[in-house]
Amino acid sequence: MPLVPAAQKSLTNWLAMIAENDFHDLPSIIAADAVFRSPVGLKPYPGRELVCLMLSTAARIFEDFRYHRKFLNDENAALEFSAHIGDIELKAIHLIRFNAAGEFVEIEKLVRPMEGAKALGSAMGSSIGPQIRALRAAA
What we know:
The protein is an alpha+beta fold. It has helices spanning 5-20, 48-61, 114-138, and strands at residues 30-37, 45-46, 63-73, 76-85, 88-98, 104-112.
């Protein structure tokens, strides 16, 4: 079953952002109350600002990022991808739930192997760790 039209529009915009490596319009497809679940974080990252920061930073950290398969259903998407961070190859999935307006309301990233998740966590922490802590404290 395909995505509902509003969700399909946001997914199409997301795929264009990934292809162009331009996340300027990312807030337009992320719900204000969105939540991001990290493969290395103990707590979810709530709110549009944190979700946008997490997604755009990870996209810049990944090298040779490629989506492979898409599993779509009404207001849900599972997007399989591969990438590497330095010499560590990884496979991963974005699980996305859309709201009625088609915005991303929940995003979960699953990464394997464990070395890939560790490399991602380390790179994210080095890149935006203090910024994340400040945003969490302000929330």
